[in-house]
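EI: anyone free to look at a 306-residue chain?
SC: sure, send it
EI:
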Amino acid sequence: MFSAVKNYFAITKKEWNGLLVLAILMLLVLLAPEVYQLFTVPEQVNFTRIKEAQRILDAAVVEKPDYLKKNYEDYPHKANASFSTIKSKPVYFSFNPNNLAEESWKKLGLSERQIKVIKNYEAKGGKFYKKEDLQKVYSITSEDYARLEPYINIPGRDFSKAYSSSAPIYKAKPLIVVEINHADSAQLTEIKGIGPAFANRILKYRNRLGGFYRKTQLMEVFGLDTAKYEEIEKQVAIDPAAISKININTCDFDGLKRNPYLTFKQMNAIIQYRKQHGNYKSSSDLKNVAILTDEVIRKVEPYFSY
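SC: here you go
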């Protein structure tokens, strides 16, 4: 076992030579920076040029303006001071700031500059609807507003005057009733809640059916739901006599195909039963066609003649 371990870690002479070369290269890489510094002459800094540049900069310094010497927080205060300068001792009285004369503003202790800003605000359409609106004018300082606020009196707006008592009163248009089996597209749009799109859908479905025999059939029109039906139900009337009927004893498959209540299998069964048993005498004969349910017969009965 010891021999196997020894053989596992054993290396050849060629491999020893390779490791030796690798160790020498690593040593050279580590020593290279130190050797480079030994043989490199450091660059001498020319302090004369630096001192000359400093002298030029010092000579270029100029005195700062007064407003730059002051603290930032003091500057706005000084600016507002120019607005709040009172030309005369204020005389207080109740006033409406809207379109107030310049002389009245002066009596209240505002400067000409402040008054000019207010007049510019009004010239651009500005109005004062409540006391606090006076603060929107930037020339009015918080101190000015505090002393003027108790005397501001802005009358409430009376909206009732905006409408003349003689203005015409528009009454709701009375609902009309439209008979939908004879109506055209324009007449259908007179129904409140029915636009051109619904009118066209109603006409297409009416033509396919041959006419409506009850109002609730309108809910079979695409997009006309229960809510829409309840909206228009009182505005429509039905004339069953206007229904275009199909003669069940003479029609072919294409004649039956227009009726939306029948499937292809049911149409074919109706025709085959007729061929085998003869003409239909009444709707009760349809019950002999096994594929027709009572519900289908009830729906198609108004559209068949015998």
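EI: The first strand starts at residue 178 and ends at 179.
SC: 👍
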